[in-house]
Amino acid sequence: MSQPPETEGDHAGQPAPPAARNPTGPETRSLPRGHAAPNVGAAYARLAPFYDLWAGFTETEALAALLALAGPRDGERTVDVGTGTGRLLGELARRNPSGTNVGVDLSPAMLREARRRLDRSAPAGACFLVEANACALPFAAARFDLACSSFMLDLLPEEDLAVALGELLRILRPGGRLALASFARGPRWYHGLWSWIAKHLPAVLTGCRPVDPVPHLRRLGAEILAQRPVSQHTFPSCVVVARRPA
After folding, report:
1. Are 20 and 198 in contact (CB under 8 A)?
2. Of 86, 122, 136, 185, whose CB count within 10 A is highest?
3. Using an 8 Å Cβ cutoff, are 73 and 79 in contact?
4. What Å distances lie between residue 231 and 57, 61, 134, 200, CA to CA?
């Protein structure tokens, strides 16, 4: 039976998280971004009612690959950080109806859209929503079996990437899985058009740009289990699944 997530106040006596570092080598550098939390909330308050139109065009195949590689199992504790309108969270709940499924987002407007979606489509009582920042998650260490995040890391400032990944690893139990989907640099010439837009017309993509979480994850001690490039209507993504060290 699903239980609500334990949040702040539950950290005492938990295992220490992996140390979050901020690598600055060329293999981890991406286009600069400077999103402040209040600005993100304001931007997505405007976008929330329309976001699924964009996601349906560019993200659904990457989410399907993430679910296939992550392999959520019934009875697990799962969390989706940057849940947005709850598309991925609903799929997690359908595969994990007797477990706990938590969606986290910084935007109250996106969480309202997620609640509407989940009330229509998810198993009753299988999902919980929490408003929080990915760089300071309000959960105890080693709380979840599976942590997911889709198309959130590509919005974060460079200095926050390793912090957010460190938080995602911290809340996983030893041996727990981390599944990520992000805007990536694809191998085809037309993939470069999206990188050009991200660089020169960032507002068109709400500030997202290609990122590579793998070097950060390796520096944080995670084991990379799988990587899969995805291209949907020319938009390039990459799915990465990693394991928190035991």
Report:
1. no
2. 86
3. no
4. 11, 8, 26, 21
The reported pTM is 0.85
* Cα-Cα end-to-end distance for the chain: 27
Tens digit of each residue's pLDDT (9 = 90 or more) over 84-110: 999 999 999 999 999 999 999 999 999
| Paired sense of beta strands 100-105 and 77-81, if any | parallel
Instruction: Please write the tens of the pLDDT for every residue from 35-55.
Output: 555 556 666 666 666 677 777
- Asked if 68 and 101 touch (Cβ cutoff 8 Å), the reply is no
DSSP string, 19-74: PP----STTT--------HHHHHHHHHHHGGGHHHHHHHHTHHHHHHHHHHH---T
**Domain locations in the chain?**
37-243
For residue 43, what pLDDT is reported? Answer: 63
Superfamily of chain region 37-243:
Vaccinia Virus protein VP39 (3.40.50.150)
Measure the CA angle with vertex 91, ends 229 and 150; round to 5°.
40
Q: Is 92 helix (H, G, I), strand (E, B) or coil?
A: helix
% of the chain residues with pLDDT over 90? 69
Torsion of CA 48, 54, 58, 61, to 10 degrees: 60
- pLDDT bin (cut points 50, 70, 90) of residue 27 is very low
